[in-house]
Amino acid sequence: MDLAIAGRKALVCGASAGLGYACAQALAQEGVNLVIVARTPGPLEEAAQRLRQAGTGTVAFVVADVASPEGRARILAGHTDLDILVTNAGGPPPGDFRHWQREDWLAALDANMLAPIELIRATVDGMMDRGFGRIVNITSSAVKSPLEQLGLSNGARAGLTGFVAGLARSVAARGVTINNLLPGTFDTARLAGNFAAQAQREGRTPEEVRQARVAKHPARRLGQPEELGKTCAFLCSVHAGYINGQNLLLDGGSFPGVF
Question: Considering the entire predicted model, what is its pTM?
Fold first, then answer.
């Protein structure tokens, strides 16, 4: 299927690895011109080189922290005429809410709620003026099924979800859609790190922790980043213009509900 977005310009955040990179790769394969963002120069530059080989569009990169005003200013200084925006940032650490201070909550809100909103604010009017725009926020399955230890993430991402629900209805008539992708357990380096930390706490090996998680999963496997990347690319396509204000759960059936 031709997604008909070749030549469009996309900003993809957190794109040096994992799910962000998978989204950038899928867009590159469709001929989209990319601007990719991450905080660490080396991996980001390597990702840009791989993406240039994966597609026919251009690939620029900006080393920046999207959670900071300075980082967003650096990103947007030369890249405001965007057709596609994919927001993505790692979630805050787990823990007991009794131990979190105001600073912890503000950091979570900055990264997982306010940064996406600020990027949307900087780009959505231009998208409407040009008559085409696709905004995809990578959030978390915890939005649909909150976990107690992920309270910082639950709160910040739920705030973004509520904001998007209102805004999406006001921009659709101008050719712009806003949707959220809610990933479950995907086979990324971040998840491997979580398995390693859990293994250390419990006196097991990371592989034992991994296999125990897989055994409980309806699909009996972890998601592959490419699966989420392709889904993101479709939501950014001309064929997805009637999908708007939605929260698409990609968890292999783990959520035990109907809706």
Answer: 0.95
Residue 136, phi then psi, degrees to nearest 5: -125, 125
Residue 63 near residue 39 (C-beta atoms within 8 A): yes
State pLDDT tens for residues 62-97.
999 999 999 999 999 988 899 999 999 988 888 889
CA 259 to chain centre: 22
What phi and psi values does residue 38 have, to the nearest 5 degrees?
A: -165, 175
Which DSSP helix (H) or strand (E) runs through 182?
strand 176-183
pLDDT in tens, 177-208: 999 999 999 998 888 888 888 888 889 998 99
Could you give the CA distance from residue 95 to residue 63 in angstroms, rounded to a whole number? 29
Answer positive or negative: Cα dihedral of 75, 61, 87, 178.
positive
Instruction: With beta carbons less than 8 A apart as the criterion, state whether 244 and 178 touch.
Output: yes
Q: From CA 42, how far away is CA 82, in angstroms rounded?
A: 25
